[in-house]
Specification:
By secondary structure, the chain is an alpha+beta fold. The chain has six helices and ten strands. Bound molecules: copper (II) ion. Copper (II) ion (CU) is lined by residues 131, 178, 180, 182, 186, 189. It comes from Halovivax cerinus.
Length: 198
């Protein structure tokens, strides 16, 4: 994808137009907006991390739910412009701008030995634009427990968010993790303890 268009979606961030219409839009356009799920959690994937946004359009480091809660996960690749545009305005405006996401990378991902993080990011955007997300118990492999799910594919060439409903069946901390190789920072692409089932 051409650099000129890759981050074009950022120009829409900060727009407040349409907020009043969110509830209606959501029920028309996304599964579960009719109240058949208890919670909706928005998950944005970028190189190299995840953004968690609640129903109110607030970015959160973690979202806690009660056991037994059904959770609609609405996941998107921040590089998928059309999918991003289809999200509620409050969710779009909660997604940090590109430079802020790059600053987050610098805080938590060591620079490569043979180059800098920015170059690695540019290369990854071009060569490995896709991600995926899975939700697994934090701190190890506990087969069969909790929210484990098959990875949701998050390609850049899709026009819609990827939506799935999961049930928070067991208490614990859960980590969002990318299961699709996405360049240098892929091993760091996780959000530890992003979901808590209490
Ligand atoms: Cu990834």
């Amino acid at each position: 994808m051409a650099p000129a268009t890759r981050r074009g979606f950022l120009s829409t961030l900060g727009s407040t137009a349409g907020i009043a219409g969110i509830a209606g839009c959501l029920s028309d356009r996304l599964p579960g907006g009719d109240g058949s799920v208890d919670r909706t959690v928005y998950i944005g994937a970028y190189h190299w991390g995840f953004i968690l946004v609640d129903e109110g359009g607030a970015e959160r480091e973690q979202i806690a739910v009660d056991r037994g809660t059904s959770i609609e996960l609405v996941a998107f690749n921040t590089g998928a412009e059309q999918a991003f545009e289809s999200l509620p305005a409050s969710v779009r405006s909660a997604v940090p701008e590109h430079h802020e996401l790059e600053e987050r990378n610098e805080e938590r991902i060591p620079a490569p030995n043979d180059g800098d993080l920015h170059e690695a990011l540019e290369a990854a955007n071009d060569r490995y634009p896709d991600h995926s997300v899975t939700v697994v118990p934090s701190g190890g492999n506990h087969m069969g427990s909790g929210i484990r799910m098959h990875p949701l594919a998050l390609p850049t060439d899709t026009t819609r968010p990827t939506v799935d409903t999961v049930t928070a069946s067991q208490r614990g901390d859960y980590t969002l993790s990318c299961m699709t190789y996405c360049g240098y920072g892929h091993p760091y692409m996780y959000l530890d303890g992003g979901l808590i089932v209490r």
